[in-house]
Design a protein that fits this description.
Blueprint: H1 7-22, H2 24-33, H3 39-99, H4 112-116, H5 118-121, H6 125-156, H7 158-187, H8 190-200, H9 203-215, H10 221-250, H11 253-272
Helix pairs in contact: 1-6, 1-7, 1-9, 2-7, 2-8, 3-6, 3-7, 3-10, 3-11, 6-7, 6-8, 6-9, 6-10, 7-8
């Protein structure tokens, strides 16, 4: 990265992470106000989100990460470092995923029907409430690296950051459902369930703040390339481990694949417009 980053770009990047994180509130609203959630549409949307994130990771972010390091370490080592950082991002996200118990991990997805019927399988309301709280904590842990991914994508390229933010916002919707439904059924308080779901999304702008204060001041070509390659790894892991399996849970296999391909096509066309 060359020169100072314009303050308007920084503000735009923060705004995108806030939008992406707080979209968990959309999931809460869907759970409360939709008489019947269109799970087929949600399946396509989640596949679309995965397509966007996978495409930009390999086609846009990975090459940019490598190119930013060439001046500092040469083309061969730039490639080595990019590959190593890419898989480091995957490993980091996998470790975070493993640290969260599967019973309260929203990335161990259930269908909407499973979530709504949980009130019948858990007799004690306190246990059900605890499930919602644990889900909110788990989402906050998982959303932290997503905030970094959105922030640094937007800093490098605002148009790219917007695409990433929309993709992450889409996949935050079922996470909002996973928090709000058990809290609502255990307390019968819509506001409390909505607030807790909404609050869990704040981890994404928090991740952006950490990136801004602790990583951005030290970014040069080498450190930016390593960070950006890790972002690509994070996004690929999220797509393969969470988005696609969740898309199949909410709909049919082919719907999620159609969404995946559509996301890639739309992303490719949008990038071509800026060439």
């Amino acid at each position: 990265m060359n020169g100072e980053i314009d303050s308007s770009v920084i503000l735009f990047a923060f705004g995108l992470t806030l939008f992406a994180g707080l979209s968990t509130g959309i999931g809460a609203a869907v759970a409360f106000f939709a008489k019947k959630t269109n799970t087929r549409l949600l399946s396509v949307a989640l596949g679309f989100s995965a397509g966007v994130m996978i495409y930009v990771s390999f086609v846009e972010i990975f090459p940019k990460a490598r190119n930013s390091m060439i001046e500092d370490v040469g083309p061969q080592f730039a490639y080595y470092y990019t590959v190593a950082a890419f898989f480091a991002g995957i490993i980091l996200t996998a470790i975070i995923d493993k640290l969260v118990p599967s019973g309260s991990n929203p990335h161990e997805q259930h269908s909407l029907v499973d979530i709504e019927n949980v009130q019948h399988s858990v007799k004690h309301k306190q246990a059900l409430y605890r499930m919602g709280v644990f889900s909110a904590m788990a989402i906050a842990i998982h959303n932290f690296p997503e905030g970094l991914a959105t922030f640094f994508s937007a800093v490098e390229d605002p148009a790219l950051g917007l695409s990433v933010a929309i993709a992450i916002a889409i996949h935050n919707i079922p996470e909002g459902i996973a928090v709000s439904i058990p809290v609502y059924y255990s307390t019968n308080k819509r506001k409390k369930a909505f607030f807790l779901s909404f609050l869990s999304g704040l981890a994404e702008p928090t991740g952006a703040l950490i990136g801004y204060f602790f990583l951005l001041p030290y970014l040069n070509g080498l450190t930016f390339g390593i960070t950006f390659a890790m972002v690509a790894g994070i996004m690929v892991f999220i797509s393969l481990d969470e988005l696609l399996p969740t898309a199949e849970k909410y709909g049919e296999h082919h719907l999620s694949i159609y969404g995946l391909i559509s996301g890639m096509v739309v992303m490719a066309v949008s990038l071509l417009l800026f060439v």
